[in-house]
Structures are given as C-alpha cells and as structure tokens.
Amino acid sequence: MKPERKQRLLVVVFIVVVAGLVVGLLSYALRENINLFYTPSQVAAGEAPTHQQIRVGGMVVTDSFQRASDSLESSFFVSDGSATLLIHYSGILPDLFAEDEAAVATGSLGDDGVFIAQQVLAKHDEEYTPPEVADAMQQAIDKKAKAESTGAQQGESKIRNMPEASY
Amino acid sequence: MWQWFHKLGSPRWFYQISGRVLPWLALASVVLIVSGAVWGLGFAPEDARQGNSFRIIYIHVPASFLALAGYYVMAVAGAVGMIWKMKLADMVMVAAAPLGAALTFIALFTGAVWGKPTWGTYWIWDARITSMLVLLFLYIGIIALSRSFSTRETSARACAILALVGTVNIPIIYKSVDWWYTLHQPATIKLTGAPSMHPDMFKPLLVMILGFYCFYALVLLLNTRTEILQRESRTTWVKQLAQSK
After folding, report:
1. What is the DSSP letter of A2?
2. Separation between Cα atoms, residue A140 and residue A32, nearest integer Å
3. ipTM given for this complex
4. For residue A36, which residues of chain B lie inside 8 Å, CB to CB?
5. Interatomic CA distance for residues B94 and B24, integer angstroms
6. 3-state secondary structure of A79
7. Which 8-state DSSP code applies to residue A166?
8. Contacts of B54 in chain A (CB under 8 A)
9. Is residue B182 within 8 Å of B118, Cβ to Cβ?
10. CATH code of the domain occupying A36-123
C-alpha cells in the first residue's frame, strides 16, 4: 500500500474509533436517561423520583388485575422478579395487555408507593407462536398444574410464582 | 493481486459487468419477494396473541435488516473512496443513501402501524426507535451533503466522513434492546441459537429477507449505473452508448 493511502486509511480508522469513543462515553454517562422505564426494584430502592412524570415497567402479576364494575378504574401489580409495584389506572387498556405479560406505564409515583398511571402500554415479547401451538403449550401447563394441585399442597405452585411484595 | 480491485474502480467496466447481473437479480428478487409475501401474508399461521397484525413482520424485519446493512455498504464505499480515491466507490456511496433512507422510513412506518394495535401507541422515544430515527437523519444528511458542494471531491470527502462517524449508530441500534430498557422487544432472529418463532412463520420471513437482499442489490446497482452515466456523460463510451440505443 502506498504511504499516502496508508495515511488515509489511518484517518478512516481514527474517525471511526473517536466517534465510537465519544458516543460510547456519552451513552454510558446517560445510561439511566436512555432507559425507557424504572423497574419495580428500582422503585423499591428509592431510585425513582416521586411526584414526577416517569415510566415504570414489569410483568403484570398473575391474578393481580382488578377492575371496578362501574368505571374504567383498574389496578394491578407489576413485578420484575424481585419486587412488585401497585399501579392504579383509569382508562382503556391496549388489547394485548394481559396478566403474565409485560406492560409499561406512564404516570407518577405517590408517597404511599402507589403508581398512578395516565397511560399503560403493552410490551410485546419476541415470541411468535401459532394459536394451535400456544393452545397445546397451555394445555400442557394446565395438565401439569392439575397433576400438582391434586396433591396435598393445593395452589402452592401459584403462590410460589407470586413475587413477594416489597412494601 | 490488486488488479481486480483497480479494474473494479473503472466505471465503464463496472457498467458493463453489472448490466449482465441485473436481469438475474431482478428475477431473483421478484420470485423471492412475491413467494415470500404470498406465503407469509396468506399461508403462515396467525399469531396466538397478536392475530393477523403480526404479519407486518414480513416487511418490517427485512426492511430494518437492509436499512442497517445498507448503512455499512454506504460507509465502506465512502471509506474505500476516501483511501483509494476511487470514483466508483463515491458513486456507490451516493447511490446507497436514498435507498437506505427509504428502507429506514419503511421500517419506522411499519413499526408505527404495528405499534398502535400492539403496544397502544404509534410512537415512543425508546432507545431502539430513537436510534432508528437518527439513522434516517444520517441517511438524509448524506443525501443533502452530497448535493451541497460544487466540487465532487469535497462532496465525496464530506459524505464519507459523515458516513464513517454514523457507523457508530449501527451497533447501538442493533444492541439497544439488550443494553437498555425499551418498549421494543428483543431480536426474534438471533445470530446464535434458534429464532423464537415457530418454523411455519419463520420460513417465509427468511424468504422475504433473502428477497430484500436481492432487491437491495438490484436497486443499488441501478442507482449506481445512473450515477455513472450522469458523471461520465462527457466520455466517449457513454456517448457511443447513447447513440447506439
């Protein structure tokens, strides 16, 4: 390679490396701001600000969803496996919102540790399954649960899956 | 060893060779995209939770793939043009920009259309979607920059530098869903390991991705050929070509 080409090659490498460093350091410094939402663990640890517009996200806990019979008021718990957070919401939920699925809520955290949401979004996972396959999988899970619940510890598996409340 | 490389740098030689590949690429892209679309939109099973709206994946994922891969095509062409002062590489870089911008727009648009029924919103400023928007602006910036200089050499240099700086964004887009909490789900198709998608749904997607690769190559060649004819319009071989038609 001719020397001037080698020099220009070095310039190219230099541009890419410096740009990479700058953007890398920037996004490292701003990593908390780049995150779209706080997890229930972060909220429990007091990392999330109160009375400010923030987002929280997590899995909607099984059997935790409750809806008022005469209004759009609803409440549910979200969990990240180690902590849970109670969310109150008044409004229409997206079609794909469901228990055992992830959701992201926009709103503010009160002093009582309850999150009042103005908007709730469903976070879809990366799994794609045809209905028949999903049914077959659900049947297999139900069958297993049935076999377990016929034993002495009825409903024990469900409690085990329920993350402990942190407040 | 460098013989072929310097030969490739000749626009005339490139024009003749690419002309022979074009019909095959056109045939492959039509066959793959039509069969993939019919298979994916008509015959693949619907998703258990999303129903039929998941089918937008057959456009969204291939377009996103090529929007990212196309950026590297553009940046590598820019670097080659800068290091070897190769005119053809500059032409490829300029030809790749509008194509990449269109694909990025398709990815963002189909994502928004899918986002409304699935997430409950058309748009959210999460890391994946925001970095994809930055990619669109990078492509548009290169198109604008390539047209804002009076000399080709300065223009090519400026575009190459912007394209090279922008390469940083590509791994960020790709890994954003793993590095930060985002609303966008992580990758379904993984480099290592099986895709988290039923094979009946995955096979047509693979056909569509291959089809989009062929389509990308086809349009890139066509754009580059147009660029060659424009820039070489005063040479004898282009004049002869124009007269013979």
Report:
1. -
2. 40
3. 0.79
4. 124-127, 180-183
5. 24
6. strand
7. -
8. 128
9. no
10. 2.40.50.140
